Amino acid sequence: MTKPHKSKSQHEDDRTEILRYLHACGLQPVTPRSIVIFLDDALRPVSAGGVDFHLHYLRDKGWVELGVEKLIGEGERIDWARITAQGVDEFDRRAKALGEVR
Q1: Which of 28, 30, 87, 102 has minimal Cβ neighbours within 10 Å of its Cβ?
Q2: DSSP string spanning the chain?
Q3: More confident site: 32 or 1
Q4: Which domains does the chain have, with CATH numbers?
Q5: d(Cα 29, Cα 57) in Å, to the nearest integer?
């Protein structure tokens, strides 16, 4: 049996939860593994590869900063992530849209 694919809105919900976690951590860098654990605890399981994909997407938007290590023959590995000022603004916008009091 194959896993059902997530919809675009489910991916956006995953990204919102990643931003929520990074926002709560402030400027403290966090590992992708800790994000996987947070999402699992929040009942939004995402694979390590999925978290990497979301972190690259969020970095391309300017919402997170990544610490990466370039590996010969393998590309890059994310060592840590933290939210940027634009990421805080985006998370606040999403939280407001969800009706969360901040």
Answers
A1: 102
A2: -PPPPPPHHHHHHHHHHHHHHHHHHTTS-B-HHHHHHHHHHTT----HHHHHHHHHHHHHTTSEEEEEEEETTTEEEEEEEEE-HHHHHHHHHHHHHTT---
A3: 32
A4: 10-96 (1.10.10.10)
A5: 17
- Alpha-carbon distance 26 to 13, whole Å? 20
Task: Choose among 34, 41, 32: nearest CA to 59.
Answer: 32
Q: How many residues does the chain have?
A: 102
Confidence of residue 3 (pLDDT cuts 50, 70, 90): low
79: Cβ contacts below 8 Å, ≥ 6 apart? 31, 67, 68, 69
- Residue at 34: amino acid letter: S
Structure tokens at 99: 């009706």
Return mean pLDDT, the chain: 92
Full-model pTM:
0.89
pLDDT at 64: 98
